[in-house]
Design a protein that fits this description.
With 93 residues, the protein is an alpha+beta fold. It is built from 3 helices and 3 strands. A 3-stranded antiparallel sheet has the order 1-2-3, with helices on one face.
Length: 93
């Protein structure tokens, strides 16, 4: 996430602040309702438990990928733009 914020800060500092705010709101919503979002559609067993949710607001092309542990603990795996090769990147995790 830091790389995205750094890039946005160079281009548009106001957009960087909005991005961080959208990410924080999204993380809070995931923490409140972690099972509300779909799992990834993948043939890779290692990725079968990863869920995804778009960022709120103007940044819906960014997806938060996360896992829910048995105790409802949420582990954020990655935050990626949808233009990236998501299956390949997540498969490398």
């Amino acid at each position: 996430m830091e790389a995205v914020v750094d890039h946005l800060r160079e281009q548009n500092p106001v957009a960087a602040v909005r991005f961080v705010e959208a990410a924080q709101a999204t993380f809070e919503h995931i923490a409140f309702m972690p099972l509300a979002y779909p799992r990834m559609h993948t043939t890779r067993p290692a990725l079968a438990d990863i869920r995804r949710r778009p960022l709120t607001g103007a940044f819906k092309r960014y997806l938060v990928f996360y896992r829910v542990a048995d105790d409802d603990h949420v582990d954020v795996v990655r935050l990626l733009h949808t233009a990236r090769d998501l299956d390949r990147i997540l498969g490398e995790e």
